[in-house]
C-alpha cells in the first residue's frame, strides 16, 4: 500500500493545527515536516518548537526532513520535540553512520536523504542501518517545483538493492509529486510519497489524496 506524507510546507501556517487535522482526516499516513536552515538550502522554515506544538494535534507519525547543516547538534532537540522519523542529508554528514546511530540512540527512526545530483552509491553502505531512504525528486528548498525525471533511475537502483539485500527500509520520494508523477515513482519502487502543493494547494484535501492514490492504483 502506498503511503502519503503531505508536506506542511505548503499549508496555511496561521492555521497549522486545522491544516494537519484536515489531511489526517483526508487519509494521510505521515505528516512531513520540512526543516530548513538558510545554509544547506536557500530558505528558512521551522524548528523544534513547531514540531513540539503540532505533536499533540495529530496521531500520525511526524516525518521530519532535516535540510540543515550539522544535524548532529539538533537531533536530540527534534527527538524530544516529538519527531517519529528524522531524515538527514547524506551531503552534510561527514560521519553518516555516527549520525544514524545518534538518531536511533534518541529513540527515533532514522532516515537518509540524497539530492537529485547525489549518486545512489553514496548511501549503499548505510542501507542496512536505516528505516527510511528519501530520494529528492527536486532540489530541496521550496515547494511547488517540477519533478526531475532522472531521479527515477536512482529510485529503481535503491529498490533493487533493497530486494537483493532483503532489507525493510521504506523508500520515500519528495518534490514535484502529483497525480501524474506519482505513478512513475511507485513503478520505480517507491512506497511513500511526499506531496506538498499537490495536497495543500487544493481546497478538498481528501480528494487530492485520493486522486494521487487512484493514479497509482491504490
Ligand atoms: C522541498 C521539500 C518538500 C516540499 C515538496 O525542499 O523537501 O517536502 O515541501 O513540495 P511539493 O510537493 O510542492 O514539490
Ligand atoms: Zn521534504
TrEMBL record:
Highest taxon of the lineage? Bacteria
Binding of a divalent metal cation: at which residues? 32, 34, 65, 174
Q: Belongs to which family? A: Belongs to the ribulose-phosphate 3-epimerase family.
Q: Which PANTHER family match?
A: RIBULOSE-5-PHOSPHATE-3-EPIMERASE (PTHR11749)
Do you know which Gene3D superfamilies this protein is assigned to? Aldolase class I (3.20.20.70)
The cross-references to InterPro entries, in alphabetical order and at most eight, read: Aldolase_TIM (IPR013785), Ribul_P_3_epim (IPR026019), Ribul_P_3_epim-like (IPR000056), RibuloseP-bd_barrel (IPR011060)
- HAMAP family, sorted: RPE
Q: What class of enzyme is it?
A: isomerase
Stated EC number for the protein is 5.1.3.1
Whether Nucleotide-binding counts among this entry's keywords is no
Sorted alphabetically, the keyword list is: Carbohydrate metabolism, Cobalt, Isomerase, Manganese, Metal-binding, Zinc
Residues in the active site?
34 (proton acceptor), 174 (proton donor)
Its GO CC terms are: cytoplasm
A GO BP entry is: pentose catabolic process
The molecular function terms in GO held by this entry are: D-ribulose-phosphate 3-epimerase activity; metal ion binding
Q: Which cofactor does it need?
A: Zn(2+); Mn(2+); a divalent metal cation; Fe(2+)
CDD domains according to UniProt:
RPE
The UniProt note on the cofactor reads as follows:
Binds 1 divalent metal cation per subunit.
Q: What does it do? A: Catalyzes the reversible epimerization of D-ribulose 5-phosphate to D-xylulose 5-phosphate.
- Report the source organism: Virgibacillus indicus
Q: What is this protein called?
A: Ribulose-phosphate 3-epimerase
NCBIfam families, per the entry: PRK05581.1-4, rpe
Amino acid at each position: 500500500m502506498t503511503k502519503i506524507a503531505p508536506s506542511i510546507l505548503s499549508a496555511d501556517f496561521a492555521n497549522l493545527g486545522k491544516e494537519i487535522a484536515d489531511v489526517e482526516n483526508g487519509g494521510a499516513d505521515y505528516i512531513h515536516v520540512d526543516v530548513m536552515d538558510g545554509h544547506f538550502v536557500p530558505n528558512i522554515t521551522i524548528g523544534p518548537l513547531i514540531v513540539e506544538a503540532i505533536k499533540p494535534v495529530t496521531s500520525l507519525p511526524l516525518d521530519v526532513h532535516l535540510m540543515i547543516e550539522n544535524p548532529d547538534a539538533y537531533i536530540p532537540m527534534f527527538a524530544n520535540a516529538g519527531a517519529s522519523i528524522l531524515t538527514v542529508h547524506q551531503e552534510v554528514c561527514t560521519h553518516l553512520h555516527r549520525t544514524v546511530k545518534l538518531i536511533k540512540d534518541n529513540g527515533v527512526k532514522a532516515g537518509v536523504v540524497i539530492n537529485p545530483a547525489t549518486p545512489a552509491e553514496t548511501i549503499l553502505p548505510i542501507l542496512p542501518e536505516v528505516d527510511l531512504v528519501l530520494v529528492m525528486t527536486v532540489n530541496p528548498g521550496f515547494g511547488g517545483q517540477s519533478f526531475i525525471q532522472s531521479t527515477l533511475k536512482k529510485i529503481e537502483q535503491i529498490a533493487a538493492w533493497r530486494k537483493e539485500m532483503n532489507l525493510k527500509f521504506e523508500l520515500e520520494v519528495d518534490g514535484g509529486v502529483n497525480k501524474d508523477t506519482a505513478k512513475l515513482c511507485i513503478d520505480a519502487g517507491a512506497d511513500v510519497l511526499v506531496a506538498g502543493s499537490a495536497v495543500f494547494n487544493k481546497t478538498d484535501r481528501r480528494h487530492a489524496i485520493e486522486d494521487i492514490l487512484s493514479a497509482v492504483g491504490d
